[in-house]
Specification:
The complex is a heterodimer of chains A (504) and B (230). Chain A has 504 residues and is α+β, with helices and mostly antiparallel strands. Chain A has 4 domains: 12-23 and 85-245, Alpha-Beta Plaits, CATH 3.30.70; 42-77, no CATH class; 247-346, Dna Ligase, domain 1; 423-503, no CATH class. Helices cover 31% and strands 32% of the residues of chain A. Chain A contains 14 helices and 25 strands. In chain A, the strands form 7 sheets. A 6-stranded antiparallel barrel of chain A has the order 20-21-22-23-24-25. A 5-stranded mixed beta sheet of chain A has the order 8-9-4-10-11. In chain A, helix 12 (264-284) runs antiparallel to helix 13 (317-330). Chain B has 9 helices and 9 strands. Chain B starts with a helix and ends with a helix. In chain B, helix 7 (156-169) links the parallel strand 6 (138-143) and strand 7. In chain B, 39% of the residues lie in helices and 18% in strands. In chain B, helix 6 (120-130) packs parallel to helix 7 (156-169). In chain B, strands 5-4-6-7-3-8-9 form a 7-stranded mixed beta sheet, with helices on both faces. Chain B has a two-stranded antiparallel ribbon with strand order 1-2. Classes of the chains: A alpha+beta (504), B alpha/beta (230). The interface between A and B is large, with 62 and 62 residues.
Chain lengths: 504, 230
């Protein structure tokens, strides 16, 4: 019975997946070649070279971890032998994580080649299909994995072990058929110590199902903590929190130059390559970049770090390159570069979701580029969306960034209606001589306009900032209509008359 | 033997008859294109009527007020209000930076990008850059305080490049000026009404309903040169 979303019959439907890459170190080295042939990794740092791990084909010929390499080659003459490669393991580990991030965001790197995924963000009906899809995607990348599904991290790991032993791609340990499934699994699958396994064998217990049917008190009395821990794992009563992987490491590329780089071209070449790589990685996770972090290390030990924000999340390598190269070109390198680090700040796709009917900028990247070019022409302080500021001093306004989304145009939430004609200001005003009669302007003379006043309104006095020493102001405004010229605003400041603007 | 004017048109007419009138003359072609032009309806009846339905997209329209208090500012405010209600962004290139914020309703400012320019040349340069951006369907170039000679340093090719960019994006540019500016403008209207002191207390709709427009003859390139010298 479905009671509410995510719950069945009153129980919360949580789920975990464990992605297990068999012989990870070997697969990392042999990802692109050596598949379908017996292969092994050896440790030849000691006096006698020994096998560290091998694939199934090699194991069938009697090769196994710990045996001398010479013996392994004697048993399997076609055996391909390699040394472990931390770089290859790093690449393969990233690939594993990136691909898994395309399924769910919550992932723990449990061990080398082992990931634990929190499936809470996906409907249970899709788990099996998604797991198969992940398996296929990784297989296409040269990594053979199995996926175990279970209601706790421990049961998912058990399911993954069962898949490894059963040689199936996906093994799902469902709550309703847990005991039946555990009945099929030998004790070795539970990864317990040899002592406990031996005791259970002596008791006549052959499967995990049989063990989990025992009563907890009996297990505790006879097997102690180790037995209870196994019993709790098998019955799904242990649910440890996951230590989620940090994506920053995934979205970062770093290069130490073999030689000092003092020209921009080689630097831009590496930047372009990094951007393409990182864009590909981030794309695998279903995200986009919201900013690029850029760090240069110079030969004199100095560093230059910069966060280059993007107006809108993107993975367009061309746009990202223009962003970084634009910064590099404007930046003066005082010493040669010895290292370069680039990192993408990934976006939250849900947070950047646009409204369906909202009006907004069509292309924010293009808008930012236009702004940048306009700032070069008019100056950065002469561009923006004007907003009134909280002051009675006339004519002041602040410039804010243009909103990327426009609110509903019919709403009357902000500002009172404006009536009358508009004022066009003369930014500095024109000094004016004003002839008065009975305190009312009669004639106006200035370098801009001169004429007889045929109608006037005023004065409107205002003042402010008297609480700031030396900044107080006081003025009287007059609106005057000049014969054959139009309507103007005159201002008397106490010291002089100014023609402040005209109405139009 | 070279054809005279009459024989040219006779020859063209006979050629057309032979081809079943498949050939269009230049004026016919332009007329047809004019009819197909998308127009930005302004919400101002007088302006719409004078422009044949609204501001033509891909074109620069000049609105001339030969002095203060002709109503250019009110029309600018009305265009901004209309654009805001339709969810469009507007760029205002303000030559002389005489923008007065109190003259515009706050909600209309949300969709406005103000660019303060020192000179006509700078404003046209900025317009040249801005018209490449598809985010702005409407550009207002406020040159009401410019003298005719201020425009002389703007190259004609630059105007035509701007026109080409406007056409590509089906955007509209409106130039408010005191006199004719460029031969690239196809639609030019003069504001012949005049505002009085009483209009400071009138509703905007009332002021706009009294605005009178008069088409101004197209400026030839020779005349443009004269204007520059003048």
């Amino acid at each position: 019975m479905r009671t509410k979303k995510g719950q069945v019959g009153g129980h919360t439907l949580s789920g975990y997946a464990v992605v297990w890459c068999r012989d990870f170190r070997l697969q990392a080295v042999k990802r692109r070649s050596g598949r379908g042939v017996p292969a092994a990794l050896v440790d030849d740092t000691q006096r006698q070279s020994i096998v560290l791990c091998c694939n199934t084909l090699a194991a069938r010929s009697g090769v196994g971890p710990g045996i001398p390499t010479v013996q392994a080659l004697a048993r399997c003459p076609q055996l391909q032998v390699d040394r472990p490669s931390p770089a290859a393991e790093l690449v393969a580990g990233r690939m594993l994580l990136e691909t898994a991030l395309g399924w769910v965001p919550g992932i723990e790197e449990t061990g080398p080649g082992i990931l634990t995924l929190d499936l809470a963000t996906q409907a249970p009906a899709q788990w099996q299909e998604s797991a198969s899809h992940l398996h296929d995607r990784l297989a296409a990348l040269g990594l053979e994995v199995v996926v175990g599904l279970g209601e706790t991290p421990a049961l998912a790991r058990l399911a993954a072990q069962a898949a490894l032993h059963g040689e199936v791609d996906v093994w799902h340990l469902r709550r309703e058929e847990r005991l039946e499934k555990l009945d099929q699994l030998p004790l070795i699958v539970a990864e317990t110590g040899a002592g406990l396994n031996e005791k259970l064998r002596l008791w006549g217990l052959q499967t995990l199902g049989a063990f989990s049917r025992l009563r907890r008190e009996e297990v505790a009395a006879r097997l102690g903590d180790e037995g209870v821990e196994l019993w709790l794992r098998l019955t799904g009563r242990i649910r440890r929190p996951l230590r989620l992987a940090k994506l920053e490491q995934l979205f970062e590329a770093h290069h130490d130059f073999d030689y000092e780089v003092s020209e921009r071209e080689p630097l831009l070449f590496v930047v372009q390559r990094f951007l393409e790589q990182l864009a590909g990685r981030v794309a695998q996770t279903g995200r986009a970049a919201t900013a690029v972090h850029f760090l240069l290390t110079f030969a004199d030990g100095a560093c230059h770090a910069k966060r280059l924000p993007l107006p809108e999340p993107t993975l367009d390598p061309g746009l990202l390159f223009r962003l970084v190269s634009g910064h590099l070109e404007a930046f003066e390198m005082k010493a040669a570069v010895v290292a370069l680090r680039l990192r993408f700040e990934p976006s939250d796709p849900v947070a950047s979701q646009k409204t369906l009917f909202g009006a907004g900028l069509k292309n924010r990247h293009h808008y930012e580029e236009t702004l940048k070019r306009l700032r070069k022409i008019v100056g950065s302080d002469r561009i923006g969306s004007p907003r009134p500021i909280d002051s009675h001093r006339p004519g002041l306004f602040e410039k804010v960034p243009l909103p990327a989304e426009l609110s509903d145009g019919d709403s009357d939430e902000s500002g009172p209606p404006v009536t009358g004609s508009t004022l066009r200001r003369y930014p500095l005003g024109f000094r004016t001589s004003v002839q008065l009669r009975d305190g009312v302007p009669l004639r106006v003379e200035s370098s801009r306009v001169s004429g007889i006043v045929i109608a006037s309104a005023g004065p409107w006095k205002s003042g402010g900032d008297w609480w700031h020493e030396g900044q107080q102001w006081e003025r009287s405004e007059w609106d005057v209509e000049l014969l054959n010229h139009g309507v103007f605003r005159l201002v008397e400041t106490g010291r002089e008359w100014l023609l402040e603007g005209y109405y139009d | 033997m070279p054809l005279t004017g009459n024989s040219k048109s006779d020859a063209l007419e006979s050629l057309r008859k032979q081809l079943g009138r498949q050939i269009k003359s230049g004026s016919e072609f332009l007329q047809e294109r004019e009819q197909k032009t998308i127009r930005l309806v302004t919400g101002l009846d007088g302006l719409n009527a004078a422009l044949g339905g609204g501001l033509p997209s891909g074109q620069l329209t000049e609105i001339i007020g030969r002095g203060p208090s002709r109503g250019g500012g009110v029309i600018m405010a009305a265009l901004l209000a209309r654009a805001r209600s339709e969810g469009r962004y507007v760029m205002l290139l303000d030559i002389g930076a005489g923008f007065s914020i109190g003259s515009f309703p706050e909600r209309d400012l949300e969709s406005l990008l103000w660019v303060g320019c020192d000179s006509a040349t700078q404003a046209v340069e900025a317009l040249d850059v801005a018209t490449r951006d598809e985010n702005f369907p409407l550009f207002l170039l406020d040159g009401r305080d410019c003298e005719p000679s201020d425009w002389k340093s703007v190259r004609t090719q630059q105007w035509y490049r701007i026109l080409n960019q406007l056409r590509q994006r089906e955007a509209v540019a409106v130039l408010f000026a005191r006199s004719e500016v460029t031969s690239a403008t196809k639609h030019r209207l003069e504001l012949v009404s005049r505002l009085a002191l009483d209009d400071l207390h009138q509703e905007r709709e009332t002021i706009l309903s009294r605005a009178r427009f008069q088409p101004v003859q197209r400026v030839t390139e020779d005349r443009e040169e004269q204007l520059r010298v003048g």
